[in-house]
What we know:
The chain is 19% helix and 32% strand. By secondary structure, the chain is α+β, with helices and mostly antiparallel strands.
Amino acid sequence: xxxxxxxxxxxxxxxxxxxxxxxxxxxxxxxxxxxxxxxxxxxxxxxxxxxxxxxxxxxxxxxxxxxxxxxxxxxxxxxxxxxxxxxxxxxxxxxxxxxxxxxxxxxxxxxxxxxxxxxxxxxxxxxxxxxxxxxxxxxxxxxxxxxxxxxxxxxxxxxxxxxxxxxxxxxxxx
Length: 174
């Protein structure tokens, strides 16, 4: 008979194996991209190709959010050591109209998504500007690649919807 402790051990072992295999493949299971594919995709980027819709950036993102559309409407290049901001446009996926009164929670990670787990500070909320626009304000101390984890909780959805409405945004600090 399999005990509860055995099931927990099986789950932890399986999760660790999937994570390790994902680090060395071109697509990590369930993440949509791995550090290998992220590095390969970032090799030849110019500042202009960092803008959403620039080809490589959108192809490196994980699965698209289910209830919303998240677009990056500002530069994803910031200056290290200075206050920075990235502006996002959040649209209702069904109507494609700007979403207001949503909670847009953010986390900032040093490096590629889920590669270092080196989160900078705790999660914070974006400021709503109106007409579906939200601004993420943050600062980073040193040049490098960062990931802005964007979670949207639509005004009429439960908090658990934040994982269904998640997008990783690449940030380049110079």
